[in-house]
Amino acid sequence: MADITRRFGWRHLRSAPTAHIRHHKRGKLAHDGRGLSFWYRSLTAALSEVPVDDRELAMAFHARTADFQDVTVQATVTYRISDPAEAANRLDFSVDPDTGSWRGAPLEQIATLLTETAQQHTLDVLARTPLAAALVDGVASVRERVATGLSAEPRLPATGIDVVAVRVVAIRPEAEVERALRTPAREQIQQEADRATYERRAVAVERERAIAENELASQIELARREEQLVDQRGTNARREAEEKAAADGVRTEAEAARKVRLARAEAEAARETGGARAEAQAAWLRVHGEADPATLHALAATRLAENLPRVESLTLSPDVLTGLLAKLGRPDGGAGA
């Protein structure tokens, strides 16, 4: 929409580069072109604004296939107005000189024309196409037929409209029919999934069997090694017992030899000690045999006195003293008190 400003009863219009402006003044064309900017008086001006940029028209309509199935077609048509003067002559692109807004709805008229034309050609194609073929190849065939039909439509060039591109987005059946059509594929996919699951389980079972066999082989090898370990331990124990027994025998023999040598030494010492004692005893007896009786009596008394307990004091009566002296072989008057 053009920008219109007011100044002292005059109007100033400034259009966009993508808008074609036609200004008629008193029935004559005063301004004609894109992106114009000029002053005018609203009472004597007749303005038309025709957009010349590419426009996207989205459309959706229902059609019926050869097997009487309802489908929904979604398409997009790109068009532009190549002849603004012809379009302004055929359609109402006039704008209010005070506000710049369209008085009518020319773009809606173009949309209706394009939609109805595209729908007519789409219905013509799908009416002779079964549903399965329409869903598989219908997009390309409908797009080609609609593009050809719009290019051959005489009303579009007469209105100054060029079709730039036609795109068919989708052709979809009703929800129930679509679910029914999806069922075989879903079943096949499910079967493939089940097969993959079974294969995965089979592989898992095979792997578990291999693992169990490896564990069993490991246990057998471990038992065999334990048996070898027990045998080796028994051998080591027997060897240790034999070594210990041999060591005990050597130690016993050494101890016996030591005891024999000790006994021999003790016996030799005993013989020498006995001989020495015998010689000492013989010498003692020889000495005593040669000594007089009085000396022997004195020695006996001395030895007796050595073995008696200590006597602090001793009192002898005259009779006892006399008898003792008599035994010692001394006269009564020869001893002093």
TrEMBL record:
Residues 237-252 have a biased composition (Basic and acidic residues). It comes from the Bacteria. Residues 33-197 form the Band domain. InterPro entries: Band_7 (IPR001107), Band_7/SPFH_dom_sf (IPR036013). Residues 231-252 are annotated as: Disordered. This is Band 7 domain-containing protein.
